[in-house]
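Below: protein 1.
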Amino acid sequence: MRIRISHQTTFSYAPPARSVIQNIRLTPCSFDSQYVSRWRVNVDLDGVLRHGEDSLGNVVHAFTYHKAVERFTIAAIGEVETTDAVGLVRGAVEPLQLPMFLRASPLAQANAKLRELVADTVAESSDTLDKLHRLMKAVHDGVKCDPEAPLAQGGASEAMAIGRAAPADVAHIFVAAARSLEIPARLVTGYVAPEDGESASDMDVWAEAFAPGLGWIAFDAVRDLCANDRYVRVAVGFDFASAQPFRATHSGIGVETVETTLIVQNRPAQGQSQSQRMG
């Protein structure tokens, strides 16, 4: 599938900020089932934009502007070709060892309620892949996802307690649950090409977990499916804090306002299919 993406985010400050420092994770990488044919990141200010890579292997652009600024826009535009690998992520850069993804992170910690959900879900299974599919189904059915909800400050534990979760919180719950089973897991940010008649409003968030003999597999507990050729993988993190598309600091006492315009268009290739279950 050929997926075209135009993602523009405008930051406004009132009163103007005295300076801005922004870390940008908006650039996908190529791997076996994802080929980035063209991509660029632009900022409409004459500041310094440096290209680099973080410790997780994500492409990061560091933008700095040391003058007064009232408003600026970051644009990521490009085209990615994808194939349906039924969730398998192979050929991606992996700078960290698996045990790093077993550690609890601030937004992906398992509380008693989550551990109870895990125990009930996988009690009759001994196979890692089966456990992960059961877990995805349990999180999808048991956690109410509200796309308009703000990210829970307390992460997975808070979302489980209040019974209402933003999409990133759903991914945090899955990640925390998998780690509680001693299965390496991480959070992913990216884009999902819409079905006919739908429209994308923001970046998507899902999870990846490691199954022995198979490798990393992408699980989307919001939709209850493994990632297919509609998914464009951009960044991974221990939780949303280390995978978020923007991480900014600005000097001044003003209020920051963020506006996003996102267009994701897909063009299915003949013979490609979509699958909801790995294996």
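Below: protein 2.
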Amino acid sequence: MIISAQEARKLALPAIACALLIGAGAALIGFVDSRLAAAERELVSAKASRAKAHDRLMRIADEEREVREKLEVYRRLQQLHVIGPERRLEWADAMSRIKSNRELLDLRYRVDRQQPLVTVPGKPANVEFYSSSMTVDLALLHTGDLLRFLDDLRDSGNAYYSVRSCTINRTGQVPTGTNIVARLHAQCVIDLITILDRAARS
């Protein structure tokens, strides 16, 4: 088909407009693609920031829970009077009370001088652990008396009681008439541990 010059002139303007529209469309597509890529990058960055913020919140929640747990342990130790100076008078009262309540035949004890404990690395600089070794001699009717004595001692507070050793021997005594005699003798070494928090004192 042959197009005349006059027809060509008539078609020139629409052709130019079409070319301009095609160019504008291509530019618009390129712009949209670039904006879409930028939006995707922003979305990835926002997700990463959100993940970091979530991790940070989880760490903070874990730290808060750990602090609450440690604070509860600290308060419990305070209630038991484990934190603070030695309470030797309270120890003596507890021993007398246990002997009377449990109707023990004989109870003797000796508490050695307080000694500092070597503790693990990482403890607070203002916290010190001390131990006093207590040797206890008990006259027993049966082993249950010893177990109940140790339970009562732990429940009495005023220190953390750590049983280092206990030895039990038969006395060889034979009951005569209506007299109750001890069938067993126990000797225990118990560490009475206290904590001195110098920061709490100041």
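The longest helix spans residues 5-79.
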